[in-house]
Structure prediction request, 484 residues.
Amino acid sequence: MEDKNLQRLKKRSISSVITLTLRTVLLQLIAFVGYFFVTIFLDQKQLGLFILVSAVIDILTYFSDIGLAAALIQKKEPIILEEIRSTFTIQQFLVVSLIIILFIFSPLIRKYYSFGNEGMFLLYAFAIAFFMSSLKTIPSVLLERKLKFEKIVFPQIVETIVFNLIVVFLAWKGLGVTSYAFAVLARAFTGTILIYILAPWKIGFSFSKKSLKKLLKFGLPYQVNTLIAVVKDKFMILFLGGVIGQAGLGLIGWAEKWANMPLRYFLDSTNKVAFPAFARMQHDQNKLKRGIEAALYFLVVLIFPSLIGLSLLSIDLVKIIPRYLKWQPALLPLFLYAGSAMWATVSTLLTNALTAMGEIKTVLKLMVMWTILSWIFTPILAIKLGFIGVPLAAFIVSLSSIVAIAVTLRYIKFDLLGSILPAALSSLVMASFLIVIKNRLPLNMISVIIKIVLGIIIYFLTLFLINKDKLLKEVKIILSYVKK
Prediction:
């Protein structure tokens, strides 16, 4: 019989997943509307410029944290104020140093990527926002350790509303990429102020070698793993900016954004809760096994049909939505990225579980493999095929996720097929139905809505018929925690 601590952990974990998922749905709906309008008002090159500048700041963000925040979350023992302040001190020193370096090298960045004044203003706006966002790390860590994600929700909702209102309004007024600059600044200041109102802590500076040594034992391997991810993704964007140009970046960015939307809805929220929850279950293989199976089942049931439905319906949507035909060349990349996202649903959760178990070196090896494969296939295919080669390379590399599955099964024997097969089969049935009725309905928004409703009905009816017991069990568990 499970002990009371595990029951409390399960209750708080499920409650947090539900809270984060509902929050994510709301945030993504707001972001969806905002992104939709922005991609109407901006062209491919302007969107590519935003993606390129974002990559530069994402790289700086990596170097602003040497894994100490993750180490604080993963730490089994209670954390002390000295550890918190030492982490804050190191992080702020790194952040300020990186911003200074960015300003020093900004003329070279401007020359290499042919940035105009608009691009440089966006770069500087991101730099200021980068500093403001770094101040939110400690309050967020303290809340995440306690699985009190509901207290993080409100600032994120306000941030998202502020950002999207400003960027859409200014883009509509014709400010182009500058719209993003003002929106980024407003979001950063709003979020920082709100999280300190809701979760204040006694800001202070400290430097304890003893505390840092303990945290770095986990933090450094974790950060090396993150570095590899940065090299794989963000440095690749910098490389592609010179190969396929800003317009090409805009096309693949548009495709990847929509293809990854189901992951942002469901995977991010689940993983955010799963990491600290799995870390506290790591001493009990049986409980951890059940946790992985439940999380994986929940994810694929929601993500697989979303990806397939989005891919099939996007063909109609780019023709129906005014001023959206410019994104038609990005449909094939969208399909390829959707296929990659299916593999990522499984592999990301499993690597997250391995990290929570302390197997950071194993995850590091997997990340090295994916990085090497990405840097082999992406440059070759991008040079040969242009922007189409980038998502094709991503899909080819995603197939290697089978290695991550095999590695995880060596550490913990969970039921892989039982967790993903019902959703996969039900999604195929739904896809077949949508393909059959595709040309039997007129090309308009009402038909798209009809297809969405019928697709959902067909999917869940099929899932109910082939996997009724497990589906009802999971729904009852979730509903019981919602009521509580």
Remarks:
- The radius of gyration is 22 Å.
- The first helix runs from residue 4 to 41.
